[in-house]
Specification:
Helices cover 44% and strands 27% of the residues. The protein is α+β, with helices and mostly antiparallel strands. The strands form 4 sheets. A 6-stranded antiparallel sheet has the order 8-7-6-11-10-9, sandwiched between helices. A hairpin with a 5-residue loop joins strand 9 and strand 10 (222-233). The longest helix is centred in the middle third of the chain and has 49 residues, at 250-298.
């Protein structure tokens, strides 16, 4: 009996010792421990760390439930989404109203459950700050079209940020490709440049270098990229790794190209205008000096009637020349300022070509080229051909082209007129002026329609004019919804052709 009693006493003693040890651990634990009754959801027991964490006394907490220290903030959903296995992170409210972030790990039994709670407010703030910084960095990369990359020689692979994948693949994906694949992305014309630039930097032990080149994405888009590279070397001077940034500069490059083209165009325009002013002053003085000279001769007492008639003819020729030059300048100015008025009417084309003959023949006579013949060409199979067009501007274009042909043709013939073609139940008139002159070099065909440009070479002496005639023809043709072009064989002659996209009627 005594033995049994002593055995029970020893068990109770060990049980009390174990309980006291657990109680000591419970009370002195560095993190909060809270026992919650499953039936009432009230705190059964809390330790000192729990009281210190939430700012309540033990007695106050034992009258409360977990709902009393919860908070209904907008962050709830965000925090609850951060669950780890066996634990949850959520906000809680302290007695003084402060909101803290806690990690709660709970174990359940039949009658109660135990929650181990730790304050992760600072850790959470740091993590959120890092996440925000990463988010801002991604957004900055997206806006600036640049990203980071790294290359490791031991793996022979590049890795990079999301924006790098958008640059190379036109979509967000994991970026990992080999050095050879990177070269394959590069535009074929830029591959040797890229390889030699990288090899040169490594050979010369450069710590950094920059280069720009073009890539072609899997979708076939051509992009210009600017790459800044940094190289780290090991103790033996070998490349350890490379890293840097890559930026899509396609739009920037386009703007730069446009600016360069605009600058070149402005410089060319300035050069042409300077040349024009020099020619224009000469072209004005020449007929004026001639007319003044002829007037002096006319007023002298030594001229007979035949000589006076010749002087009057020459004065008239130079007057017409001067008038044409001034009219060309006025027309060009009106075209450039978009103040040229186009008046459409139904023009009888056969009558129009016939009416042009007398003035064009007069111009040929004035040029004194007796071995040159003007031949009008019309479609004699049609009774009447009409086109909805500005007759005055059509006359101006044809006159300029014939006048130009007379200047550059010494003998042979100049044909002018039109041809009719039909397609898809629609008639089209193609006007033309063809000559048997020296022709135009193929490398000058795109230039001759530019303002202030005159054409001549070793075989063709410089002729009179300010270089505006063909430019005016081109602008007038475009104003009337048409186009003009030239076909020429050097040494055999040229043909200027133009059409208008306006209605044609045949009777």
């Amino acid at each position: 009996m005594t033995s049994l009693s002593s055995g029970g006493f020893i068990k109770r003693l060990f049980a009390r010792i174990t309980f006291n040890r657990y109680k000591e651990v419970f009370d002195k634990a560095g993190y909060a421990i809270m026992l919650i009754d499953n039936a009432t959801n009230r705190f059964i027991k809390v330790n000192k760390a729990a009281c210190g964490l939430f700012g309540y006394t033990n007695e106050e907490l034992q009258k409360m439930t977990p709902l009393d220290i919860s908070t209904e903030s907008e962050e709830d959903e965000l925090l609850s989404s951060g669950k780890a296995e066996g634990s949850v992170i959520r906000p809680a409210r302290c007695k003084d109203g402060r909101i803290i972030i806690i990690r709660v790990q709970t174990s359940y039994s039949e009658k109660f459950h135990v929650s181990l709670i730790s304050d992760v407010t600072e850790e959470y703030s740091i993590r959120r700050a890092l996440e925000l910084n990463e988010e801002r960095l991604r957004e900055a990369q997206r806006i600036g079209h640049f990203g980071w990359w790294e290359f490791r020689p031991e793996t022979n692979k590049y890795i990079g940020s999301e924006e790098i994948s958008r640059i190379f693949y036109d979509e967000t994906r994991d970026l990992s490709f080999t050095f050879q694949e990177n070269i394959a992305f590069t535009h074929p014309e830029d591959r040797s440049y890229l390889i030699s630039a990288i090899e040169d930097a490594i050979e010369k032990k450069k710590e950094s270098f920059s280069l720009s080149y073009r890539i072609i994405t899997p979708q076939g888009r051509v992009k210009a990229v600017a790459v800044n590279s940094n190289i780290k070397y090991d103790d033996n001077g070998r490349q350890a790794y490379r890293y840097g940034t890559c930026q899509d500069i396609t739009e920037t490059q386009k703007i730069m190209d446009d600016l360069i083209a605009a600058r070149r165009q402005a410089e060319e325009s300035d050069r042409l205008k300077t040349t024009f002013l020099a020619n224009f002053s000469h072209e004005i003085r020449t007929p004026l000096n001639a007319m003044l000279g002829f007037l002096n001769i006319l007023t002298s007492m030594d001229t007979n009637d035949e000589e006076k008639a010749e002087m009057v003819r020459l004065i008239e020729i130079n007057s017409q020349r001067l008038l044409r030059l001034i009219n060309d300048m006025i027309d060009m100015s009106r075209i450039e300022s978009n103040s040229m008025e186009i008046k459409y009417t139904n023009v009888d084309i056969n009558n129009f070509v016939s009416s042009m003959a007398s003035s064009l023949n007069y111009e040929l006579d004035a040029a004194g080229k007796r071995n040159l013949v003007l031949i009008p060409v019309t479609d004699t199979t049609k009774k009447a051909v009409f086109q909805y067009i500005d007759e005055l501007r059509l006359s101006q274009i044809l006159s300029n082209l014939v006048s130009n042909a007379i200047k550059f043709t010494d003998e042979g013939e100049i044909k002018y007129g039109y041809r009719i073609s039909r397609s898809e139940n629609r008639y089209t008139i193609t006007y033309f002026v063809s000559d048997t002159g020296q022709g135009i070099r193929s490398d000058r065909l795109d230039d001759i329609f530019q303002p202030f440009v005159q054409y001549w070479n070793e075989d063709v002496p410089k002729v009179q004019g300010a270089g505006l005639g063909l430019a005016i023809c081109k602008r007038l043709t475009e104003l009337m919804k048409g186009r003009i072009w030239v076909e020429s064989i050097q040494g055999k002659g040229s043909s200027f052709l133009f059409t208008f996209n306006t209605p044609v009627m045949i009777e």
